[in-house]
Amino acid sequence: MDELGHPIVDARGLRCPLPIIRLAAAARLAVPGSTITVLSTDPAAEPDIAAWCRMRGAEVVSQEWSADENGGFLRSEVKVSAAAG
Amino acid sequence: MTYGPPAQTGHPHPSGVRAERAYLDASTVAPLHPSGREAWLTAVSEGWADPRRLHREGRSARLLLEGARESIAADLGARTEELVFTGSHTAAVHAAVLGTLRARHRVGNTVVMSAVEHSAVLHGTRFAGETSLIDVDRLGRVDVSAFANAVSEPGVALACLQAANGEVGTVQPVGTVSEATRKSGVPLLVDAAAAAGHTSIDPHWDLLTADPRSWGAPDGLGVLAIRAGTRWLSPYPDDDGTEQVPGSVAIPAALAAAVVLKTVTAQREQLGHRRRELTHQIRTAASAIADTEVVGDPDDRLPHLVTFSCLYVDGEAVVDDLDRQGFAVGSGSACTASTLEPSHVLAAMGVLTHGNIRVGLPVDVRPEDVERFCAALPGAVARVRTMLGADDL
């Protein structure tokens, strides 16, 4: 959780499909319409988070790569729907 | 008649099954067709000499080489003199791209291509020019109007579009795209690596590449055709061989490729119809598994390929599970590739890149093997999901 109470899934260092499984597990507990943040490093997570959102009726609010000392990570903001999970 | 690798007993599998092998990964490399084996052996005995020599042995080799050239050209819709043999499909693509960039360097160095081309097209272009990638839709089909706009820009040396995608089977609109490239005066390279031998090839290309391994010929040969009048210059050092690229040709591979292509072309409709029905069965079985998407165009597609992605599944684990049950299949998931990158084809289509399974049916596929595969699939996917703790997501 961040300071506003949004769930954060830290999937950095995990390989496909684990980041998506963590996202789905968080989505199941999330309030419909709320936003989940996913941090990931696997290049497959970028297209797969978007594909998961399409399949689950969720919405990709943003996806942005940032640099860090370990070579960078992707931050995805995902808005879950009532049916997601 | 069956061919391909001999049937073997599988490794022990959790289900206790010890199955016969079924090779269902004939998307890029098909098992050697029996007619190819015979032709290859003939050419090893009669075509071993240097085809440039004037003696009887040399003439015999030359005869086989030129016979193979004439036959493959005819089956691909090219003229004999337009055909160039290379050492591999990758080498043929590189020669096509680099030779066009060299011949048209005054025009520019941009190569317009769909976002789902073979990696050899991407790598060849990045080596000597700039890529201009054109988006595809969810089915993997290129955006024709974006393609047409891109080739009308200044600085475009070459356009490249595959006849059909080798990962998901979708047939590309080569005819429509060729009207745009012709209008813009840009040569069009059609990569028929996945399609040649399985469907007819649209003749509106300026350069054509093909991979004999995909139609059941042995390794060691690539095919490049350059239409008469197309500007192309060899990008390699001069050589005094039989081809417009350096090096000698594997004559046994060339003869085998010609004989197999002739055989499968003669039976193309029947083989296509038969395999289309079997891939349809696999599509139906895969669609019935929860959270599984069959990808690619359902109708306008290659007859022998079917690809699907299963949510919350590790591609490597499911390929391994199926392998231990006796089924060889492919995958476009990153964990099954030599790199960590996911399939650029699946990513460009916006479909799941993980949990991907790619099935390619060889021409002699047995319906009972497809039936067994369809029955084994749900269990394999379920086992991997359980292993990953993703049963109830």
Automatic annotation (TrEMBL), chain A:
InterPro entries: TusA-like, TusA-like_sf. Signal peptide: none annotated. Pfam families: TusA. Coiled coil: none annotated. It comes from the Bacteria. Residues 9-33 form the UPF0033 domain. Belongs to the sulfur carrier protein TusA family. This is Sulfurtransferase TusA family protein. The lineage of its organism: Bacteria, Bacillati, Actinomycetota, Actinomycetes, Kineosporiales.
TrEMBL record, chain B:
GO terms for molecular function: cysteine desulfurase activity; iron-sulfur cluster binding; metal ion binding; transaminase activity. SUPFAM superfamilies: PLP-dependent transferases. This is Aminotransferase class V-fold PLP-dependent enzyme. It catalyses: (sulfur carrier)-H + L-cysteine = (sulfur carrier)-SH + L-alanine. Residues 38-373 form the Aminotransferase class V domain. Belongs to the class-V pyridoxal-phosphate-dependent aminotransferase family. NifS/IscS subfamily. Keywords: Aminotransferase, Iron, Iron-sulfur, Metal-binding, Pyridoxal phosphate, Transferase. It comes from Kineosporia babensis. Its cofactor is pyridoxal 5'-phosphate. It comes from the Bacteria.
